[in-house]
Design brief:
This protein has 134 residues and is mainly alpha-helical. It has 6 helices and no strands. Helix 1 crosses helix 3 (47-64) and helix 5 (98-107) packs antiparallel against helix 6.
Length: 134
C-alpha cells in the first residue's frame, strides 16, 4: 500500500483509539473482542467517526493477515463489519413549513429566538414569509 504521511498518521491515531477501546492487544483478538470493539464504537461516537474507525479496523486486519488490498479482500473476523455510511434523505414533508414556523414563533416570547427562527427560515427558503412578532 502506497499512502502518504497524513493518511498514515490518521491510521495510527485511529489505531491508538481502537487499542484503547479494546482494552486488549489487537494482534490476536477473537471475534468476540472485535464485536465488543464495534459495540463500544457504535454506542459512543458520532456516525462519521464510527465509519472511519470501522474502516481503519478493517484495514488494520487486512494488513495484519496479509490479504490482497487491491482486490478489497478482508479476513473473516472483520469481513462482516459494514463500513458504508448511507446518508438519510429528507422527504419534503419532513421539512418545516411556513405554518410550523409561525407556530414556533408564537410559542416563543424571546425576541432573539424569534429573530433566529426568521433568519433560519429565510436562509432555507427562497420565498420570504412575513412573520408576526418583533
Amino acid at each position: 500500500m502506497n499512502i502518504g504521511k497524513l493518511r498514515a498518521s490518521k491510521y495510527i491515531y485511529h489505531l491508538v483509539v481502537l487499542a484503547r477501546t479494546a482494552h486488549k492487544s489487537l494482534k490476536q483478538p477473537e471475534k468476540q473482542d472485535i464485536e465488543s470493539i464495534i459495540g463500544r464504537i457504535n454506542t459512543s461516537v458520532y456516525s462519521d467517526a464510527k465509519a472511519r474507525l470501522q474502516v481503519v479496523l478493517k484495514k488494520y486486519f487486512q494488513w495484519l493477515r496479509g490479504c490482497d488490498e487491491n482486490e478489497h479482500v478482508y479476513p473473516a473476523e472483520v469481513r462482516w463489519i459494514k463500513t458504508t455510511n448511507k446518508r438519510k434523505r429528507l422527504l419534503p414533508e419532513a421539512l418545516l413549513t411556513a405554518e410550523d414556523l409561525r407556530r414556533m414563533v408564537e410559542a416563543r416570547a424571546l425576541p432573539s429566538t424569534i429573530f433566529g427562527l426568521k433568519r433560519l427560515f429565510k436562509c432555507r427558503n427562497t420565498n420570504t414569509v412575513r412573520l408576526s412578532g418583533p
